[in-house]
Amino acid sequence: MYRIGEMVVYGEVGVCQVADITEKELNGRTVEYYTLEPCYQGFTIYAPVENCERQVRTVIEKDDAQALIEELPFMSVEKVQISSLRAQRELYESLLKAHSCEALCKLILIINDRKIAAEKAKRKVGAVDEKFLKKAEELLFGELAAALDISKNDISKMFRANLQKVH
C-alpha cells in the first residue's frame, strides 16, 4: 500500500500525491480507496486500493530519472514502419499504456524521428503524432520533474538538449 503524502503515477493522469486513504460503502461492502490529487491538474481521483496494481506505481527514483535523461542521446529505437493510421494509434496507445518512463521515451523518440523525416520531405507530422507527443511529454516530464524536484519546464529543456544530441 502507498502512504499518505507519497508521490505516485496514476495511469495516463500522471503524477499524483496520495492525499488520503479512506473507506467507502459500495454495494453493501466496505472498499478502501486512495484519494489522489494530480500534481499538474485540478481534480481529485478516488481509486480503489484493490484495483490499483496496474494503474498506480511509485514515481521513478531520482538516480534513475537522471540516468534516463543522460542516456537519451544513446537510446536507439528501431525504425517503425506504420502501415495505417489505425496501426499508428495502436502502437502509440500501447506505449502510453505501458506506464513506464522508458516506453514514453521510446514514443517520443519514434515521433521525433517521424518529425525529422517529415521536415526533410518538407511536410508536417500529422495530428495523431502531435497529440501523442504532447501526452507522452506531459507524462514523462511530469514524472521526471517530481523525481528530480525541479520544474517541468527545466525537464523539458534538459530533455530537448539531450534529444538534439541524438541526431
Structural account:
This protein has 167 residues and is an alpha+beta fold. It has helices spanning 62-71, 85-97, 101-120, 127-148, 152-164; strands spanning 7-10, 14-26, 29-38, 45-48, 56-58. The longest helix has 22 residues, at 127-148.
Tally of helical segments:
5
Shape: globular
- Average pLDDT score: 91
Strand content: 15-25%
Beta-strand segment tally: 5
Q: Give me the side-by-side strand order of the main sheet.
A: 4-3-2-1-5
Query: Which regions have little confidence, pLDDT < 50, spanning 5+ residues?
Result: none
Largest sheet: 5 strands, antiparallel
Q: Topology as H/E string?
A: EEEEEHHHHH
Over the alpha carbons, how many angstroms does the gyration radius reach?
18 Å
Relative helix content: 40-55%
SS content category: alpha+beta
End-to-end separation? 42 Å
Summarize this structure as a short list of keywords or feature phrases.
5 helices, 20% strand, 167 residues
